[in-house]
Amino acid sequence: MKKIALSLTMLLGTLSFNSAVAFDGDAEAGKAKAATCAACHGPNGNAPVTMYPKIAGQHADYMYKQLKEFKLGMTSGGAKGRMDPVMSGMAMPLSDQDMKDLSAYFASMPMSAGTTPEDVVQTGQKLYRAGDAERGIPSCMACHGPRGNGTSLAQFPKISFQHPEYIKAQLMKFRDGTRGNDANGMMRDIASKLTDKDIEVLSKYLGGLH
Question: Full-prediction pTM beyond 0.85?
């Protein structure tokens, strides 16, 4: 477990160093460009349909990275970046500045609170905070923080208050390799060790983590 924690600490330091660049998105300009996004993510970034993620309050750096990789997924035919039939198409016409402005706008909006069912609190808390050393699963908290807020510099996303259905879908995509834009394959490696039950519990636990 100490080796796992050490490797994550080293990775955090490396990512923080490499990602420490100025973010120059304009939130007001982003607001004017966000009308199309509202169809799925809601007018304020809190998606009303749970298959789509809440993007309000998400780190601007992280959203900018995802938008770039959605576009790359389309231009590379899925060989690089992050391919999604809807989002990759939406990202195609966006300029680099559009992506920065949209990211800045949604980052400035408050994410709506969620809830955690009582029956997953104990199991979810243990897996989130401590992982499972016997199965080689590190704690989620090591990268996403005790409150699930992630970190902007390392581009680890805020995952607390996120729709459980969306979290579940992404963990399953990491597990089966259909999503592969995680740094050093870290999420794919972790997700490969999660059972269906683990994913279900974590997804519901994160909904109300605060």
Answer: yes
